[in-house]
Amino acid sequence: MYFQTYSYIFLFLPITVLIYYLFNIRLSSRAAHLWLLLSSFFYYGSISPKSLPILCFSIIVNYTIGIWLLNRNSEFKFRKIVLSLGVTFNLLLLGLFKYSNFFIDNYNKLLGTDFNLFGLILPIGISFYTFMQLTFIVDCFRFNIKSCNLLSYGMFCTFFPYIVSGPITRYNELVPQLDKIDSSIIDWEKMSQGLYIFSIGLFKKIIIADNLAVWVNNGFDNALNLNFFEAWATSLAYTMQLYFDFSGYTDMAIGSALMLCLSLPANFNSPYRALSMQDFWRRWHITLGRFMRDYIYIPLGGNKCGKFATYKNLLLTFILGGIWHGAGWNFILWGTLHGFGIIIHRIWKIIGMTLPNTLAWFITFNFVNVCWVFFRAQDISTALKILREMFFPEIIPLPFIILEKFEILKNLSFIKTVKNPLSAINGSFEMVVFLILSFSLVLFFKNSFEKSQGFSPSTKTKYFIVFLILYSIINIGEISKFLYVQF
Questions:
Q1: pTM to 2 decimal places
Q2: What SS3 state is found at 293?
Q3: Domain end call among 153, 185, 217
Q4: Which residue in 96, 288, 338, 378 is deepest, having the highest Cβ count within 10 Å?
């Protein structure tokens, strides 16, 4: 039961919101919070019932650790040991389910052994709720959290809008809001704003991301047979698909929460407009970026220990960010490339050199686009094959219509005449239109965050919401998972 399903749109979300407000008004806020907790457990269980016990176990252990850490009478040394045990527990739990097979497989290849892989399922959302619980116990250790009860903590860990794919929310960003909600009224403006943002996210996912997915899958499945145009089309389509899929999920998560009068942190702010890698990470997956900054980079020493140490800390932070995304060398390489991109940007700033904005954007976007190829490909060799066709093609295919207009091209040895230069990925004029539309939306139009800032529930807005929702619902086909679910 993902956000883009009929059961979520027509049953789960309206029923959950309706009963939440009924409980809040007729019974008590505690009853309403308990309802949200039970609803969140139901939502998570509907996606992956086998993952529920692992989630519950993680919640109980981390809540217990948090309570110990909040005890101001405990000695600092004891609290530090408890924090270390808490961090170790979370990393071991994540490592067991997400990385054990990766290490066993690589160990077998390296030493020629034949150890069997574990038959463990990957619990849905474990990367996200593990990071959120790490922020909780660290904030408890720092006394950034004053108090906590099991109901509030359970709500924080399982809240259905973000349990599957974020945004990575901190305890103090959600729980205090629950106590401030006026139980005697319904904030219709927030409800309207939530529906507005949700409709935009649904459109992004169903109409844009899922249509691009067809060509992306064809391209990466046929990576060995791609030509110059197909390789570029595949990489650009994935770059756009990932953004519209993940930002679409975030919009639906933020919109769902707003319908309950709860605000979640922004996660995207037009990342493909970035003029540097540092700028990109201030705009892309914002909550992950701040987690890496506040809970990895700064504890490692940040920029307080000299230039070399700063570069080392940056590189290590992004390598760990790559590992967090998935158990594969391609993710490690992706994180490493981004780390070097950030370091090069820092050095460039120190030198004091500048580039025209257009050139800075062009370099940044293409660097990100190349890195996404490693992120999406099954392995590094597949990614390198696509990149070789993108940058060092032996043959450039051109359709008949172009060669007829430019006859001089016919005499070039590296030009090949074809009917459709995108045939290997079943590309067509429709694909070109989708890519142009995607580029236009990310570069020239306001993003969801910007639109929500100036939201007003007008008649024009109502028609816009109805159009987006109806058009998206009509076009729901095979149910596709959100891309970040696998991470």
A1: 0.93
A2: helix
A3: 185
A4: 338
